[in-house]
Design a protein that fits this description.
Blueprint (H helix, E strand, L loop, with lengths): L12 E6 L3 H8 L5 H14 L5 E6 L41 E5 L10 H7 L4 E6 L2 H14 L3 E5 L8 H9 L1 H4 L1 E4 L10
Parallel strand pairs: 1-2, 1-4, 2-3, 4-5, 5-6
């Protein structure tokens, strides 16, 4: 279903663009350009016209890895030896502007260890329109938290990505276990047999 930028939900919504950052793009795409960035920039431009909040939480363990997890954290601890994720620097070319809100997130969920929830509630936000990389990481962790916190979660599927396409598709097929309403920015191509 295409995202509706004029829907009534917009009045209490914020766009949350998660982990669109330099290290993530370097790991997943190397020097190759990704159409994902162009699609997300299209989403950002259209969202700005609504006048509603736009937030960019990115993964950051700190310059000296002072926020690094213990080895028991299987999702994050393998990245420590790579030298990545010392900062949450956005990927070059992301359509950011002065006044945009940025968060340094020490774990996969953008809510863990940040003021994001409090900042959203202060702004009267009850609906989250979300996009992020990767679907099985930040998206799954953050959607689960947001749903438990009673947010109306709407995910933009064509602005989310995971290197495991099967897992990505399964999560969207199930609506993340019924937690989200899945939308697209662009029409999906019709498949005929």
């Amino acid at each position: 279903m295409l995202i509706d930028f004029q829907g009534r939900y917009i009045e209490k919504a914020a766009l949350v663009v998660m982990h669109y950052q330099a290290d993530v793009f370097a790991i997943l795409f190397g020097e190759q350009p990704s159409p994902l960035l162009d699609r997300c920039n299209g989403l950002i431009r259209r969202w700005r016209a609504t006048g509603r909040p736009l937030l960019f939480p990115n993964f950051s363990l700190g310059e000296a890895y002072e926020h690094a997890p213990p080895p028991s954290n299987r999702q994050i601890s393998p990245y420590i030896s790579s030298g990545h994720f010392r900062t949450g620097r956005p990927v070059a070319g992301l359509a950011i502007e002065p006044g945009d809100l940025f968060y340094a997130c020490p774990r996969a969920s953008v809510f863990h260890g940040t003021s994001l929830d409090a900042d959203l509630r202060t702004r009267g936000v009850s609906t989250l329109v979300m996009a992020g990389i990767s679907t099985t990481g930040v998206v799954l962790s953050s959607v689960t938290w947001a749903s438990d916190a009673d947010y109306d979660v709407r995910l933009i599927e064509d602005c989310c990505y995971d290197p495991d396409q099967e897992a990505h598709d399964a999560l969207f097929r199930s609506g993340f276990g019924g937690r989200v309403q899945a939308h697209t920015l662009q029409e999906k191509p019709c498949l005929t047999m």
